Amino acid sequence: MYDNNSIEDKFKTQLENLGYGQNTILMAYAGVKEFLHHIATPNIKDISQEQIQTYYEYLQNRKQKRKDEPLSEAYINHQIYSIKLFFTWLEETGQIDENPISNIKFKRPKINTRQPLNKAEITELFNATQNLKEKTILHLCYSCGLRRSEAVSLNMMDIDFGNGLLYVRDGKGAKRRVIPLNKTVKTDLENYCKKYRKDKNCEAFMLSRIKHRMSGDSYNRTLKQLLQRTEINKEITLHHLRHSIATHLLENGMSIEFVRDFLGHSHLETTQIYAKVKNYQIKKL
After folding, report:
1. How many Å separate Cα 47 from the centre of its chain?
2. Which of 45, 76, 213, 232 is the most exposed place for a label (fewest CB within 10 A)?
3. Which strand ranges, in their side-by-side order, compose the sheet holding 177-180?
4. How many CB atoms lie within 10 A of CB 202?
5. How far apart are CA 61 and CA 41, in angstroms?
6. How far apart are the C-alpha atoms of 197 and 133, rounded to whole Å?
7. Class (C level, CATH) for 119-236
């Protein structure tokens, strides 16, 4: 017998100990909690492939709580990813003898074909900035290729201006990486600190108007305001900037291995999806 809350909390603690990002931890915890509640099996060793497949079919037919619409493929994929993490942990810690999800094949989610901005459009965005704060946000999400959550989590101590390095300590999937800053980016980030970071009480790098850590929604609003000052007629999100820098680095002759490490990917296949390479070959090491 097992206590749902107890096993979920232990799983959550393990993810924290492994260094997974907070968003991933909360997503995985909620996903496992819903799964265990749905199957209502008193012993984790009794969970079968059939129960997991039945739950997967349930997710495909379930409606959203706020809308009378099916769950998105992204949400279902997140739920399955959470359950996979859970069973991997159970297997590695000897709590189950066999992993019931290991041999199940799930429908692959459709790839979001975001089109990257071209270099002229990126230049137009930078030209539309009206202050160092806006320019710094573009540098973090484009020049440094940070995910929105990584930009939000960035602290003052994560930037080594002396050596021109930016440290991502809380990346997706517990991956940490070091990003080199070119002279322009380093200078702009230093100038931002001199102008906006006179208050040393908050450890966050990007601050809101009330001197608190800047939220992800504030990043989104800033990008929307910048787009309104340009002639760019596209639906653009912060993640498009990350796609764009991947493509532009490859265009400039960077190896795909370098771009993989720059973005913090575990697999080259992910980097190839991000980078829309068309008229040039990917340079191999």
Report:
1. 30
2. 45
3. 159-160, 165-168, 177-180
4. 15
5. 21
6. 11
7. mainly alpha
| Six-digit token string for 249 | 């680095």
Task: Give 128-160 as a DSSP string.
Answer: T--SHHHHHHHIIIIIS---HHHHHH-BGGGEE
Q: What are the distances in angstroms from CA 90 to CA 7, 29, 100, 221?
A: 10, 14, 11, 41
Half-sphere exposure of 121 (CA within 13 A, CB side): 18
For 90-144, what is each residue's pLDDT tens digit? Answer: 999 999 998 999 888 887 766 555 678 999 999 999 999 999 999 999 999 999 9
What are the structure tokens assigned to 181, written together? 């800053």
| Catalytic residue numbers, as ranges | 147, 172, 239, 242, 265, 274
Element (H, E) at 84: helix 73-92
Residue 238: C-alpha distances to residues 141, 222, 245, 277, 278 (Å): 7, 10, 11, 20, 22
User: Which two tokens mark 209?
Assistant: 């108007």
Record the pTM: 0.62
CATH number of the structural domain 4-92:
1.10.150.130
Give me 242's structure tokens.
Answer: 């990350």
Q: Which residues pair with 204 in a beta bridge?
A: 155
263 φ, ψ to 5°? -85, -15
CA atoms within 13 A on the CB side of 6: 6
